[in-house]
Amino acid sequence: MTAHTWWLLLILTVAIAALIYLINSRLRVHPFVALILVSVGTGIAAGEPASKLAGSIEEGAGGTLGDVGVTLALGAMLGRLLSDSGATDAIARALVARAEPRRLPWLVGAAAFVIGVPMFFEVGLIVLLPLIFSVARRMEAQGGTKGSPYVLLGVPAIASLSTLHGMLPPHPGPLTAMTGLHADLGLTLGVGIVCAVPTVILAGPVYA
Q: Looking at the structure, do residues 159 and 87 belong to the same domain, yes or no?
């Protein structure tokens, strides 16, 4: 690897850190605006002529959207159909019905896992929140739960949804990475699930 390659890797690392900071700091920059700002800064730092920056960003964004846009739209539509039809609510309630309190975090995590495959993180969380709060209130009324029942049930749900959002298509990140690397969809799904299951268990019910 040449010195120029290491310089580009350093620029990439700084760009990713800057993007995360802009989105998650007190500035609360919109993700799209933050992405554009970081892209411009990365291009300039990498030596891209200013006159070609707009064309490069347009070509890169257009190419990515052309590859994954339809799949993302269909995935969002599927998630909305599941939500509006009540299927997700039925799945979740079936998993937690007649369960012992100590098993509820595991069942809520499982429900979130099933719902999180086709649904984006935000949509899945909105769908699950009413169920989480109602079950947590029931656990609180019964007593005998160490700590907050809201945390006990909320953490597994968030762990499942966020893990799947980051590891499995048709979620934006994995789908974009899969397209950019020309990876096989079936293999990506298989490896993603294998990696997601222990991650969800450790970051969800065990941690909670």
A: yes
The number of distinct structural domains making up the chain is 2
Same domain, 27 and 119: no
Residues 6 or more apart whose CB falls under 8 angstroms from that of 130 comprise none
Assess whether 22 and 91 both reside in one domain. no
Give pLDDT, residue 47: 86
Instruction: Return all residues near 29 (Cβ < 8 A) that are at least 6 apart.
Output: 22, 23, 37
pLDDT attached to residue 65 = 67
Q: What is the 3-state secondary structure (H, E, C) of 61-92?
A: HHHHHHHHHHHHHHHHHHHHHHHHHCHHHHHH
- Look at residue 58 and tell me if it is in a domain: no
Looking from the CA of 46 toward its CB, the CA atoms found within 13 Å total 20
How far apart are alpha carbons 191 and 206 in whole angstroms? 22
Name every residue whose Cβ is closer than 8 Å to that of residue 34 and which is 6 or more positions away in sequence.
19, 22, 23
In a domain, residue 172? The reply is: yes
Q: What is the pLDDT of residue 194?
A: 92
Same structural domain, 76 and 177: yes
| Residues of the chain predicted below pLDDT 70 | 1, 64-76, 78-79, 82-83, 88-89, 91-93, 95-97
Q: What's this model's pTM, rounded to 2 decimal places?
A: 0.64
Domain of residue 77, residue span: 68-206
* pLDDT value, residue 196: 92
Q: Is residue 120, in this structure, part of any structural domain at all?
A: yes
pLDDT for residue 200: 94
